[in-house]
Amino acid sequence: MSEFVKVACTADFADECKILLEVDDRLVVVVRVNDEYHCVDDVCTHDGGPLGDGELDGCHLICTRHGAKFDVTDGSAVTMPATQSTGSHEVKVEGDDIYVRINE
Known about the structure:
By secondary structure, the protein is mostly beta strands. It is 0% helix and 45% strand. The radius of gyration is 13 Å and the shape is globular.
């Protein structure tokens, strides 16, 4: 497992906001929902499309290609056509700094 990497500051996020970032050579989407931060891979498991381009609907990130929804709290696929989870990564906040640790 990798180490925690500082990726952003809390001031970078409005409520219910998402930011596409690269962490350890991996594209991820860091999301703020209800004052909690989550991180998932920027990959729709249905066809490999980017999730970071999608709309955030509560705790669901919607793929723009075919409408598959993923729960940002754990990466699980919520609706078809996706049937497999996308990667989910650990997030911690220390003061105003946001850190992500990539799960392999």
